[in-house]
Amino acid sequence: MLLIKIGEKSFYNIPVNQFLSQWVERLRTDGTRMIPLKNCVSPASLTAKPNWHRDAIGYMVADANDIQQAGQGTLLLSGANGVGHKGGFFVTPNNLWRAAIIFTVRRVVKATWLNDRDQFLQTTKEITDEFKNDCLIWMLFNGSNLTASANNLSWNGESWSIVNHFIPFSEEDLGSPERFESEFMKHYLEGCTLSTESTNVLERAKTLWRHYYEIIDVAAVREQYKLNRADVGWYQVRKAFQARNLSGDYPPVSFDDFELAYGALSDKLIPQVYELGFLK
């Protein structure tokens, strides 16, 4: 049998305390209550617990520490979905930049037969503000950013609301008919200098998001995705557009320009994941 060398693969024995999963402090629940969800906007079963932390603006599911499981096990959420997940943690204003890096590093490199058991590592190199901000924008517009808003969610005999803290635009930017309850992300980004790649993603996403407010979706779509607040999340915007395009009742909305810009940002970030030592 003829054997053909196609490359080299190195293996490392690295202590667990150097894994990326150990890079962020995990706050304990503190008695603050939040509706537990089974997905972005649907209440969980009554056996779930409404545990939260007063400083949290979201919750990140970050299951396992290898590439194989990162694709399905990396999610950003607005409610108490997955609180208690092994590896999950509350996202706060203080750890947001690390959360964005963890999210991006775990998702931007795709699994292959050669790398799927590789472990994510903490970097020992200097992280630039540009890399931090690129990761934040990449996270905000990734398909696994499932942050959302909703009113009148019924759970355990109570009515609950969830607030979206991850809209990087103001009401005026988007032409929203109502005020947003949280402008956290808009103000957070005001202190950031964005790269050309991130700016392109942000501008193309803003164009799409503005279109969302031009049409009131049919009742079934509004109910399915809980579109009963102005401060909807990127997940809800995308789902609304998918429903509109499938119905054929509205002018089709193309994501092609956005996807090109997002792909350029991804291409920029992938080699940096290795250069900074998050993967070997």
List the helices and strands and how they pair.
Layout: E1 32-33, E2 51-52, E3 58-62, H1 67-70, E4 74-77, E5 89-91, H2 96-108, H3 129-140, E6 150-155, E7 158-162, H4 171-174, H5 184-190, H6 196-212, H7 219-224, H8 234-247, H9 256-275
Antiparallel strand pairs: 1-2, 3-4, 3-5, 6-7
Helix pairs in contact: 2-3, 3-6, 3-9, 6-9
As a whole number of angstroms, the C-alpha radius of gyration is 20 Å
SS-derived structural category? alpha+beta
Number of domains: 1
Main beta-sheet annotation = 3 strands, antiparallel
**Helix content class:** 25-40%
Task: Count the DSSP helices.
Answer: 9
| H-E string | EEEHEEHHEEHHHHHH
Distance between the termini: 31 Å
Mean pLDDT: 94
Strand content bin = 5-15%
Describe the global form.
globular
- How many individual β-strands? 7
Strand order of the largest sheet: 4-3-5
What keywords describe this structure?
3-stranded antiparallel sheet, alpha+beta, 280 residues, 7 strands, two-stranded antiparallel ribbon, globular, 10% strand, 9 helices
Structure commentary:
This protein has 280 residues and is α+β, with helices and mostly antiparallel strands. It contains nine helices and seven strands, in the order E-E-E-H-E-E-H-H-E-E-H-H-H-H-H-H. The chain has one domain. The radius of gyration is 20 Å and the shape is globular. The model has no long low-confidence stretch (mean pLDDT 94).
